[in-house]
Amino acid sequence: MPPPPGGGKSAHAYTRFIPREELSSFAAWTPGSLGGEAEAAAAAAAEPQKSPEELQAEALRAARQGGYHDGYRDGLAALESFKQSFAQQATAQMGALMQSYAAQMDELQQQMAGALADAAVSLARQVVRGELRSNAQQVAVVAQEAIEALLLSARHVTLRVHPDDQPLVAQGAAEILEARGARLVADAAVTRGGCLVESDIGIIDASIESRWRRAAAALGSEAAWSSEEPTP
Questions:
Q1: Could you give the dihedral angle defined by the CA atoms of residues 65, 66, 72 and 78, in that order, rounded to the nearest 10 degrees?
Q2: Partner of 220 for a Cys bridge, out of 39, 95, 117, 159, CB 3.0 to 4.6 A?
Q3: pTM
Q4: How many whole angstroms separate alpha carbon 112 and alpha carbon 115?
Q5: What tens digit of pLDDT does each residue of 126-184 get?
Q6: How far is the C-alpha of 169 from the C-alpha of 135, rounded, in Å?
Q7: How many CB atoms are closer than 10 A to CB 165?
Q8: Cα–Cα distances in Å, from 20 out to 23, 24, 190, 205?
Q9: With contact defined as beta carbons under 8 Å apart, do 144 and 169 qualify?
């Protein structure tokens, strides 16, 4: 047998190189390309299947987790709504409280003003009464001013005074009485310190009660001159 080409060395079939031009197609080989799908299928088959109870438990846990998040979100929304409602109610209550407080303060101020006015009037009454006792001749000045306030056209002028004041007025207001042709009359109904001027055109009330009411009204009081005199 003739020796094989290539120097007489024997060649095995698997040692023969195939020229590239004789290959129709080829692809690179990777270690995982052999049996990969089979291994994946085997792994999937080897994974333990969950029982219906486990699946139900997982579903329950998922539902609880979702409910927790939903409840937390709803709780925050409810808390914010409560805070706004509480703030509005607190504001309204505070406004009503301030209005009530202001009304009470106004009433208290009015009461205090009335009490001060009454105290001032009471003190003034005592001062006037003391002045009438110590300076009784002042009634003549009052009578003179009352006659001077009467119109010059007035006729039939009559001056009424308390009997105890008659001599004081007759002496202290003699000139004006004579000038106006006025008649001086003692009248026990007239309180000491005051007088009434009557004429054909009207009456001038210069009584102590009338003058006192005007003075008390200026102080914001309706206190009468004496307890026997009703308040207007």
A1: -150
A2: 117
A3: 0.48
A4: 5
A5: 666 777 777 878 899 999 999 998 888 889 999 999 999 999 999 999 999 999 999 99
A6: 13
A7: 26
A8: 5, 9, 157, 150
A9: no
Pairing relation of β-strands 183-186 and 195-199?
unpaired
The whole-angstrom separation of Cα 123 and Cα 221 is: 13
Rounded distance between C-alpha atoms, residue 170 and residue 184, angstroms: 7
pLDDT, tens digit (0-9, with 9 covering 90-100), for 55-105: 777 777 887 787 777 787 888 888 888 888 888 888 888 888 888 878 888
| DSSP states of 156-193 | S-EEEE-GGGHHHHHHHTHHHHHHHTPEEEE-TTSPTT
Instruction: Supply the DSSP string of 59-78, one letter for each residue.
Output: HHHHHHHHHHHHHHHHHHHH
Token representation of residue 177? 């009485």
Helices (H), the chain: 36-46, 52-134, 138-148, 166-172, 174-180, 208-218
Other beta carbons within 10 angstroms of residue 177's beta carbon come to 19
| Cα–Cα dist 108/117, whole Å | 14
For the record, the structure tokens of 80 come out as 């914010």
